[in-house]
């Protein structure tokens, strides 16, 4: 079982590194990275200001990544919005994968165990809700 978890975690690290290439490194480590090439001058200046703010460095160390970028909404709205747009894809894909897993379980393992209660005129089948 330990090998399965190790393999899974190593695959997550590889996927995470692939997704957060150098262009998005500023989200993970805003105090030790370069501005991406697609940043305009205002975004670059904001990142430099953020980089120089020692109180934010301390705040970054106390908070998790998503909370930090949400808290920057008022002070560094451009950077916060960009970071949140990239970070939101992780939670969205997680929810989709979880939903597909539930559907797969329902359609395979538990489907044969469920008993049909009744059938209506439109052909829909109602199942007993106990799994």
Automatic annotation (TrEMBL):
One Gene Ontology molecular-function label: protein dimerization activity
One Pfam family cited in the UniProt record for this chain: Dimer_Tnp_hAT
Source organism, top-level taxon: Eukaryota
Domain named HAT C-terminal dimerisation: residues: 61-122
InterPro entries: HATC_C_dom, RNaseH-like_sf
Protein name: Ribonuclease H-like domain,HAT, C-terminal dimerisation domain
Organism whose genome encodes this protein: Cinara cedri
């Amino acid at each position: 079982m330990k090998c399965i978890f190790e393999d899974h975690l190593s695959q997550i690290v590889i996927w995470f590194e692939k997704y957060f290439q150098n262009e998005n490194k500023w989200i993970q480590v805003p105090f030790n990275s370069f501005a991406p090439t697609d940043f305009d001058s205002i975004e670059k200046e904001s990142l430099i200001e953020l980089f120089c703010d020692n109180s934010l460095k301390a705040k970054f160390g106390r908070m998790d990544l998503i909370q930090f970028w949400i808290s920057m909404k008022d002070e560094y709205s451009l950077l916060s919005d960009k970071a949140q747009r990239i970070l939101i894809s992780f939670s969205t894909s997680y929810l989709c994968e979880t939903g597909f897993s539930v559907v797969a379980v329902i359609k395979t393992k538990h489907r044969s165990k469920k008993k049909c209660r009744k059938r209506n005129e439109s052909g829909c089948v109602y199942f007993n809700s106990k799994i």
